[in-house]
Amino acid sequence: MECVDHKNMKTLKHEIKSLEDWQKVIKTLLPHLKYGTILALSGPLGAGKTTFVQLLAKALGAKVNPRSPTFSLVRNYSLLTTNYLLKRLVHVDAYRIEDEKDLLPLNLDEELAEPGTIMAIEWPENIKKWLTHQRTPIIHIDISLQKTRRQVQISAEAGV
Predict the structure, then answer these.
(1) Of 35, 82, 101, 126, whose CA is between 20 and 30 Å from 109?
(2) What is the pLDDT of residues 67-76, one digit of tens each?
């Protein structure tokens, strides 16, 4: 793991070769997750975005294993953890969002405002405008594929 500080951003870089490496990344993130946090997951198809959400949900005590919300766009998971005061994980897949007007029926603002909620968004680049209007912490997780491994770069505002 490599840590880089920029002006108002803190960036961590991880090399992922196994599920155990993903779990280390999640363990690093857990203390920084608080009510209202958005995890913006970027990367190509098959990079591991849904796997990340599944392992995060498990670490937070989700009752069920998350599935990709590609067709439903949004899935909610109850969390049993008491360590981080988080009660719910909202998993959004914005891959099929072509116009941000498509977000209106999803009620993402209301979902995020629910006490104890964090949100993981796959393909956040498709809803940039919505993200820029959020006043909650956003942690950007960029995943790139290499031949035998993944590179993960995590960026967050210095206060996160």
Answers:
(1) 82
(2) 776 667 888 8
